[in-house]
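Aim 2 progress update. The chain analyzed this quarter is reproduced below.
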Amino acid sequence: MSKFVKTFFLIMFLVSAAFSENAGFGSITSDRNKPIQFTSDSLIFNQKDNIAELFDEVEIIQGKSILSAEHVKVIYSKTDNKLEKIFAEINVVFKSGEDIAKAENAIYSFSEDTISLSGNAQLFQGSSSIIADQILINTKTGLTQMLGSVKTIISPSAN
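Predicted C-alpha cells:
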C-alpha cells in the first residue's frame, strides 16, 4: 500500500473519530419534539401552498437548536402542517448543542433526517473543524459526508 493511501486512510479514520463522538448533530435528535419559535423582520405566509418565507435576521429555535440566516423558506406538509423542509440562505448558522455549522446555503429535510450545507460549508465540533464545498449530515445516524476541497483541523482530545 502506498504512503499516500495509508495517509488518506489515517486521515479518514481521525476525521470519523473526531466527528462521531456523538451520534447525529448536536442536540437535534432530542429537540425534535420541542416547540418551534420563528422570528424575523418580515414574514410572508402562503397558506394555499403551505409555504412561509422569512426575511432579515431570521432565527428559528427548537430546544437547544438555533438556525439563523437572512432568508428562510419553510415548507409544511399539506395534510398535517408538519415541517417538511427548510431552505436557508445568506449567512446561515446552525447551532445545536455544542455543534456549529455555517454555510451560505442550507437545506434541512425533516422527512429525510438530513442537513445539506453548501457554499463555504463549515462544521465545528469542539476544537475540531471541517471546511468543504458541501457538507451532508444525517441527523439520525450521525453520518457526515464532506465533498469538494475538504480541509480538516483535528485538535487532540484533552484525555
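The chain has one domain: 3-153. The two ends are 32 Å apart (CA to CA). These observations will guide the mutagenesis experiments scheduled for the next reporting period.
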